[in-house]
């Protein structure tokens, strides 16, 4: 089976740093994505990790440990516009076909307060 | 910047009616997907499509659902006889390769009455 866990909600202060954790159990792992989703809108891509380690991209960084089934998204210098849901998604390798589907967690709703 | 587009943005239909949701993927992308998100729930995979055929489908994607690429630009999702529980936001996505990020369209909000 496949299972992805992340906290339901988090609150942080403008200018601070926040870390959103994600744990997963899945077969056919082919990488982990983080997406941002504002209410009523489409998910937008933030980061992708397929190898262990840290990927940094401006104010956003993402870490992956494949052996532990663990990832986190780190947001620095938080801004009010960062208030959104953050979705952890595992890319699941399709052995019989050409495409890899994304399996999403329930998302972490981040509220950034002044 | 290229983007995935979807029409309509909202669709209201009666139970039992057929609906077709339309998507125009990014032009140089070859891999296409449909996902849905019931209000307040997680994004769920429905189906993936490559080289003019379904690559993978979920258990949600039963005989009531079908996908088609009728021409070189459009990618459609058809629900033959809608049910109340089909009410959701439907997202189309496309990617350049299986391992690249999937770009999502703005979604079609489907309401079945």
Quick description:
Chain A is mainly β. Chain A contains no helices and 11 strands. The termini of chain A are far apart.
The span between the termini of chain A is 41 Å
Helicity of chain B, in percent? under 10%
Q: Tell me the greatest interface.
A: A-B, 27 and 25 residues
- What is the tally of helical segments of chain B? 0
Order of SSEs of chain A: EEEEEEEEEEE
Number of discrete helical segments of chain A: 0
User: What would the average pLDDT of chain A be, to the nearest integer?
Assistant: 94
Task: Walk me through this protein's architecture.
By secondary structure, chain A is mainly beta. In chain A, 0% of the residues lie in helices and 59% in strands. In chain A, strands 2, 4, 5, 9, 10 and 11 form a six-stranded mixed β-sheet that branches. Chain B is mostly beta strands and 113 residues long. Helices cover 0% and strands 50% of the residues of chain B. The mean pLDDT of chain B is 95. Chains A and B meet through strand 4, strand 5, strand 9 and strand 10 of A and strand 4, strand 5 and strand 10 of B.
